[in-house]
Amino acid sequence: MKATGIVVEYNPLHNGHVYHAQQAKKVTGSDIIIAVMSGNFLQRGEPAFVDKWTRTKMALATGVDLLFELPYRYATGHAPVFAEGAIRLLDAAGCTAFCFGSEEGDIGVFKQSLKNIDSSRDTYEFTVKQAIQEGTSYPKALNKAYETIRERGLGGADLSKPNNILGFHYMQAAMTIGSDIMPSTIQRLGADYHKDSLELGEIASATGIRKSYFSTSSLKEVMDFVPATTGELLDEWQEAGLKFGNWESFYPYLRFIILREGPEKLAHIADITEGIENLIYKAAKDHSSYQPFMETVKSKRYTWTRIQRMLTHILTGFTYNMRDSMHTPSYLRLLGMTNEGRAYLNEKKKSLHLPLISKAASFSDPSLDMDIHASSIYALATGQMTGLDYTTSPIIGNHFSSNSFK
After folding, report:
1. Which end of the chain is more exposed for a tag (fewer CB within 10 A), N or C?
2. 344 annotated ligand-binding residue
3. 301 or 183, which is more confident?
4. pTM across the whole model
């Protein structure tokens, strides 16, 4: 069986995601789709709207056949780290291709971008270093360096666009690790990744769906933009009295930790640099809600997303030492599968490049321990029971109980 890989967050899964999975399978001529999905904390430093098990159910009902968890260390990393972890897992799972959505929709321009940087690497790296020293954020420094090369008329992708950026890093990661996995891309349809409003007749962004809910506390407006299964699962989550994940509801827990730990301990948390722990501590003392806290901490040097990653690590207690103990992914954590996915595993199980983990208690690894710990923190803030990683088996197909949250 031939498998194509995709990298997802499904926060939550919407109609555009269904299109992506369907087209990925079609354009690569694959038998199944394998997805690598972030757990309960995401790449932009945010808690997931609903937990990983619920998003697994959404995925299996709408086009994904096998779902593996991207470990916390990669799921909450900046784009190059996120991409490397995901591609390593897809490669280990035996995918012959991977497919990403992009604003470009043309794999050729991404290949050209890689050639451009490779042929002008010294200029590129010097420009990145100089921009960071001037106080430019890392993502903007990368784009500035890339545009310096692109202005020479060499062509390539527009790396100011969020999906293009991730797609570029997926391809760069595959090249770096020496994988034979073949890249492909499809045109992203509908609303821009960052668009935060809903308009009938278009495919909404996950950002717009979440904002709609948090501004109204109602799921009614989002139902036209998500598959039926996603809608049913969101309804079940709400009816069970669980909180949808966002920083406003998580902030009281975060603030408590910041004030308890103090600047000296915060300095050991991953991504905390240059004394920003003092500003974070003072802002937490001064502000009882999340938005004014963030407006106090944000600066030209630190993007909103970068600060949110710091806060995620503070919330979960993820230190530099812990991150240093986690190297390349060392296992494939199975979250769910369809019957076709099960058949693929039966066929390929002996040739997988990493151990397959279906029971958390059966494997010991610092990354897995961190995923379980992060899930417990997430459960505390959303009102779930803790320990779900030990009590939840991989989801099979879309056969699940309507009482799954109670």
Report:
1. C
2. no
3. 183
4. 0.92
